[in-house]
Amino acid sequence: MRRSEGQTLGEYSIGIALVTIVLIGALITMGGNISGMFTSVASRLQSQDAGESGTEMGSTPEEISKNFINLILKYRSEHGRWPRSWEPYNYSDLGLDPDKWSQPIDGVKYVPAGNRFGIANVRGDDYQLYVKTKDGRKLHVYDGYGVWYDLDSGQWYYHSRKRNIVVDINTLKIVKKKHHSAPPKPPEPPGPMPPSRSGPPSRHPMPPIRIR
After folding, report:
1. Does the residue 168 lie in any domain?
2. Mapping DSSP to helix (H, G, I), strand (E, B) and coil, where does residue 97 land?
3. Whole-model pTM over 0.70
4. d(Cα 104, Cα 121) in Å, to the nearest integer?
5. What's the domain count of the chain?
6. In 3-state terms, what secondary structure has residue 178?
């Protein structure tokens, strides 16, 4: 029995509809993946613009500090003593590359030192550090200063434990100074006019011309 023309057209329509549904589903899935990819890239760029560099220890001072402290505690548990406090062994004892971690990252240097761990503000760069005390007072961590975590007391201190100024590490801010271009200098006013070369008339009249 031959199929009617209407039946054939109906089957074609159903087939086209199924293919369309499959394509739409594939596009939705791909769109979600592409959207997620772009979101991830945008997040990374935003973090870099904000001064956060991704490392194997984390991408923010809080994350990096937490992982450093965990490595120090792990070393203490495994060896029965604190890791060394001088470079390059303060990094290599923790299984880290001294050439990388002895350099500043986004304006700060991370310094493991035995039973202490510090975040130091580097001298002479464009970055400045600020942190707040437990009662909300804002402190400027000046060049060459830092905040230090004491593993015996479990507290963060401004500059050193001796000062006994406890700070909240979650409030640490790294601020990059903005350079403003100097305005153009105004044109200099014109100087005085040079004196005229033509002096006053001579006081001695010209001698009379004699006609022979």
Report:
1. yes
2. coil
3. no
4. 9
5. 2
6. coil
Does residue 38 sit in the same domain as residue 113?
Answer: no
Encoded tokens for 73: 């505690």
Residues 86 and 137 in one domain: yes
Tokens matching residue 173:
């801010």
Does some domain include residue 65? yes
Query: Residue 163 falls within a domain, yes or no?
Result: yes
- Which one-letter amino acid corresponds to residue 93? D
Q: Do residues 102 and 166 both lie within one domain? A: yes
Q: Is 33 exposed, middle or buried (0-12, 13-18, 19+ CB in 10 A)?
A: exposed
What is the token pair recorded at 25?
């589903």
Quickly tell me which residue has 């002895």 as its tokens.
102
Q: Which residues contact 177 (CB under 8 A, 6 or more apart)?
A: 126, 127, 128
Domain membership of residue 124 as a residue range: 61-176
Residues 130, 173: Cα–Cα separation, whole Å: 5
DSSP state letter for 157: E
Q: What are 48-105's pLDDT values in tens digits? A: 343 456 899 999 999 999 999 999 999 999 999 999 999 999 999 999 999 999 999 9
Element (H, E) at 63: helix 61-79
